[in-house]
């Protein structure tokens, strides 16, 4: 029987660590590097399936914590999994619920057993263990499931970081054992260790011993210093096997995507582009437009004159500005554009890797985004330099 | 434009309007409804999601309530409202008041009318009104009108004023219209007022008919000030006066039973806001409009689900409300439209005490939690072919934006198909059957 995941490297950048791969999953084959939009509660806020398909999205995320609460795994199982429930035929990735535990829930208590917390809906006490998380994800039927990890904020230091790292390894093994669907669903490990190179290295060496189809780099993208962030990413791709996908969790700002592709990451997710859209912020190659602002009231250009998304083909900034206070459709227009922006960015990245001009692409991208070299963020300059790209 | 009849039976008109629009290239079927918009958008829908719906009618119905505040922008834009809202090829009908938002009374004067937009009250003089029309460049628009809802027992004097003012506005609009290069191919619709007084209604109709208008709007019938019977009698009397060869529009009528009563009384075009109101309640239109002659088939099609929610009557849209209440509703509505996507559809009210009568199912009802059937069995719309009641229940419970999108798609589809069934019924001579079928589902 075919493994539920295969990765074939199509091209490798001779300068950086970037690679173009073909990733085959049970519901969909797609190319990496890939950005995965987040559809938390079984829907990408306000966007219908045909619209998402038309944008070229091949994989998106569902959230185990939210869906585990409402509507719950039993109902979703009855609906033929999350694919059936939301009527999405392409690939789905579900996270474990671990991150929400810690970020959303007051008084969540982490023990060796799992994460204990009170349901915000009915006050009942719930234990999210590795076994429970996998049970829910098995019911969801996603192409890729994430292990339950002991999530610790990247700004935390001290023994807690080490404890969490070792526990995540133990929980990985429990998740592997609990997976009732290994032929149809891929379980990814999540590398922890905070910003401590030693801990992270230990974690890497341990986790790659397990026979799993893919690895995520976790515990970053949480507000830590970018200077530490990129070094941990680079350390991780140093050790992670070449022939398995590397998923950098929670990264989605354009510059971060470009740099982390150069550092060797293949898959990314982030709520930022879709969330910021609902606040009226449209992403463009030179930054973002706050369409709520009065300066756009009489601006009759599209968001981006070079963008071919459905929003830019038909609507002006002025109209979106006018519509914003009046109807939810404004949010949808901007969401569509922002997803298109992200997916087009990744598509351009892939094309440039294919054509062996990724370093040139990086130069052009940075120039367009920041205008002049003195505005380039220090951390990006350093990170790119570490993979042999000297920004001009 | 020209009206071509397929049939006129007992005052029920069935046919086509042809050579419609500034380019004279469009046609529309009557009886029909308009595509309701807010700030130029079918609520919740983008061009692509609107395209998922079959049978979307023209014209597109715009309102000054939702657009007048952007007048300056349109003047600078210069290319007309159709292109601005992303519908450059559509027939555009520009009306004054939004049927789904309350419109307080007491603000119109001899020289001005007020509309209520997102930013509060906007006062329109004739000059401004016509300046807006020239900036917008619609295909149809109705003349400035004093149609604010009058409380029950309004004095004859006040009603008399509404007729006089509106006629005066019509004449002034026509003057500007006839001298305007930009509006020369547009049609101006005359507005018939008169409150609840037959004499005044007839006077308004007879006078308006004398002017060179492209059609007639029966206005001022929104509101609580008259009984249904009186309303319908007035409508009959007015349409009885009007020339047969021009279309008759009505504002404020949206429920299926009321639509049919008005079709029987010679009305041609209706606003399409009812599906939007249903959507905002988290409900899906489910009424059966498949009239059948065969009794067996009729049995099956009449199987009204037991769980169908018996709600109170949806009160008419433009009721007499206080200024404060109206402001509160605007703020209420805006608070629920924050940018974080937490659009609380189920509690939003776009009219003051709206509850939809039983022509719909309430998808927030827990019984739908694990109901994997489509919203309406046999409905060919995008929503019913691709999604389930259980999914909609989940989306509504979790306050997800997609609920509004999917419900709007289904509700518009259902409503447009209802109008097609009206036209079919007229063609087949079965309007009575359709009326009975709808009446049975009313309570």
SS-based structural class of chain B? alpha/beta
**Describe the biggest sheet of chain A?**
8 strands, parallel
Number of strands of chain B: 16
Uncertain regions spanning at least 5 consecutive residues of chain A: none
Oligomer: heterodimer
Q: Rg of chain B, please? A: 21 Å
Task: Output the strand order for the largest sheet of chain B.
Answer: 4-14-13-12-11-10-7-6-5
**How many strands of chain A?**
16
Largest β sheet strand count, sense and barrel closure of chain B: 9 strands, parallel
The proportion of residues forming helix of chain B, as a percent range, comes to 25-40%
pLDDT averaged residue by residue of chain A: 95
- End-to-end gap of chain A: 50 Å
Distance between the termini of chain B: 40 Å
Shape estimate of chain A: globular
Strand content of chain B: 15-25%
Strand order, largest beta sheet of chain A: 4-14-13-12-11-10-6-5
Largest interface: A-B, 48 and 49 residues
Q: Helical region count of chain B?
A: 16
Strand percentage of chain A lies at 15-25%
Number of helices of chain A: 16
What does this structure look like?
The complex is a heterodimer of chains A (392) and B (443). Chain A has helices at 49-54, 64-69, 73-78, 81-86, 98-104, 130-140, 159-178, 197-207, 226-239, 254-262, 272-278, 310-314, 317-324, 329-354, 358-370, 378-386, and strands at 6-12, 19-24, 29-32, 34-36, 59-63, 91-95, 109-110, 115-118, 125-128, 144-146, 186-191, 214-217, 246-248, 267-269, 281-284, 287-290. Chain A has 392 residues and is an alpha/beta fold. In chain A, helix 10 (254-262) runs parallel beside helix 14 and helix 10 (254-262) runs antiparallel to helix 15 (358-370). The longest helix of chain A is centred in the last third of the chain and has 26 residues, at 329-354. Chain A is globular and about 60 Å long. Chain B has 16 helices and 16 strands. In chain B, the strands form four sheets. Chain B has a nine-stranded parallel sheet. In chain B, strand 12, helix 8 (228-241) and strand 13 form a beta-alpha-beta unit. The chains are: A alpha/beta (392), B alpha/beta (443).
């Amino acid at each position: 029987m075919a493994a539920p995941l295969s990765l074939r490297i199509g091209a490798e950048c001779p300068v950086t660590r970037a690679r173009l791969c073909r990733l085959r999953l049970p519901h969909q084959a797609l190319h990496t590097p890939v950005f995965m939009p987040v559809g938390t509660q079984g829907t990408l806020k306000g966007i219908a399936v045909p619209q998402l398909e038309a944008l070229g999205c091949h994989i998106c995320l569902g959230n185990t914590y939210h869906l585990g609460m409402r509507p719950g795994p039993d109902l979703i199982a009855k609906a033929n999994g999350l694919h059936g429930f939301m009527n999405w035929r392409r690939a789905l990735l579900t996270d474990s619920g671990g991150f929400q535990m810690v970020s959303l829930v007051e008084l969540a208590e982490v023990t060796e057993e799992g994460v204990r917390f009170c349901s915000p809906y009915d006050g009942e006490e719930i234990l999210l263990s590795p076994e429970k998380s996998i049970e829910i994800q098995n019911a969801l039927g996603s192409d890729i499931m994430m292990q339950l990890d002991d999530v610790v904020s990247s700004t935390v230091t001290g023994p807690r970081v080490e404890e969490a790292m070792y526990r995540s390894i133990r929980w990985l093994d429990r998740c592997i054992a609990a997976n009732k669907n290994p032929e149809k669903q891929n379980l990814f490990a999540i590398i922890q260790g905070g910003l401590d190179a030693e801990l992270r290295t230990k974690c890497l060496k341990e986790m790659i011993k397990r026979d799993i189809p893919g690895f995520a780099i976790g515990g970053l993208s949480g507000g830590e210093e970018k200077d530490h962030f990129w070094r941990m990413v680079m350390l991780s791709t140093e050790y992670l096997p070449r022939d398995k996908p590397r998923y950098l969790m929670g990264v989605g700002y354009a510059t971060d995507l470009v740099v982390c592709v150069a550092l060797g990451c293949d898959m990314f997710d982030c709520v930022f582009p879709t969330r910021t859209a609902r606040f009226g912020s449209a992403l463009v190659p030179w930054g973002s437009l706050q369409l709520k602002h009065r300066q756009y009231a009489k601006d009759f250009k599209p968001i981006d004159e070079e963008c071919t998304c459905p929003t830019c083909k038909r609507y002006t900034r002025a109209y979106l500005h006018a519509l914003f206070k009046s109807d939810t459709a404004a949010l949808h227009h901007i969401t569509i554009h922002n997803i298109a922006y992200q997916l087009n960015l990744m598509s351009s990245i892939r094309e440039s890797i294919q054509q062996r001009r990724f370093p040139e692409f990086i130069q052009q991208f940075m120039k367009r985004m920041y205008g002049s070299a003195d505005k380039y963020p220090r951390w990006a300059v350093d990170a790119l330099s570490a993979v042999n790209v000297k920004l001009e | 434009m020209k009206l071509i009849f397929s049939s006129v039976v007992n005052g029920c008109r069935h046919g086509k309007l042809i050579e419609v629009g500034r380019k004279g290239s469009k046609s529309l079927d009557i009886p029909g409804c308009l595509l309701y918009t807010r700030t130029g958008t079918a609520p919740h829908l983008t061009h692509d999601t609107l395209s998922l719906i079959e049978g979307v009618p023209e014209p597109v119905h715009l309102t000054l309530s939702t657009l007048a505040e952007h007048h300056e922008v349109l003047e600078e834009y210069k290319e007309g409202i159709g292109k601005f809202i992303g519908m450059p090829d559509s027939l555009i009908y520009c009306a004054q008041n939004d049927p789904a938002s309350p419109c307080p009374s007491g603000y119109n004067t001899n020289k001005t009318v007020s509309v209520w937009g997102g930013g509060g009250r906007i006062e329109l003089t004739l000059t401004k009104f016509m300046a807006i029309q020239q900036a917008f460049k619609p295909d149809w628009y109705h003349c400035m009108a004093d149609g604010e809802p009058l409380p029950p027992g309004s004095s004859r004097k006040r009603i008399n004023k509404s007729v006089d003012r509106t006629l005066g506005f019509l004449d002034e609009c026509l003057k500007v219209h006839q001298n305007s290069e930009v509006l020369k191919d547009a049609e101006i619709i005359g507005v018939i007022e008169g409150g609840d007084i037959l004499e005044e209604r007839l006077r308004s109709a007879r006078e308006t008919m004398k002017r060179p208008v492209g059609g007639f709007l029966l206005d001022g019938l929104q509101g609580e000030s008259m009984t249904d019977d009186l309303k319908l009698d007035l409508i009959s009397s007015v349409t009885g006066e009007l020339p047969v060869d021009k279309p008759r529009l009505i504002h404020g009528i949206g429920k299926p039973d009321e639509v049919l009563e008005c079709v029987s009384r010679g009305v041609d075009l209706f606003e399409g806001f009812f599906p939007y109101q249903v959507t905002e309640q988290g409900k899906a239109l489910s009424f059966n409009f498949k009239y059948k002659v065969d009794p067996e088939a009729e049995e099956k099609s009449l199987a009204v689900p037991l769980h169908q929610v018996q709600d109170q009557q949806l009160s008419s849209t433009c009721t007499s409300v206080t200024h404060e209440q109206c402001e509160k509703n605007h703020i209420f509505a805006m608070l629920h439209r924050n940018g974080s996507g937490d659009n609380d559809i189920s509690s939003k009210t776009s009219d003051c005490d709206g509850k939809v009568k039983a022509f719909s199912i309430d998808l927030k009802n827990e019984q739908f939690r694990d109901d994997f059937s489509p919203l309406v069995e046999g409905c060919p719309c995008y929503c019913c072919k691709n999604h389930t009641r259980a999914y909609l229940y989940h989306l509504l419970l979790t306050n997800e934006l997609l609920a509004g999108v999917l419900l709007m798609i289904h509700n518009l589809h259902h409503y447009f198909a209802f109008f097609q069934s009206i036209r079919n019924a007229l063609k087949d001579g079965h309007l009575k059957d359709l009326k009975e079928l709808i009446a049975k589902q009313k309570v």
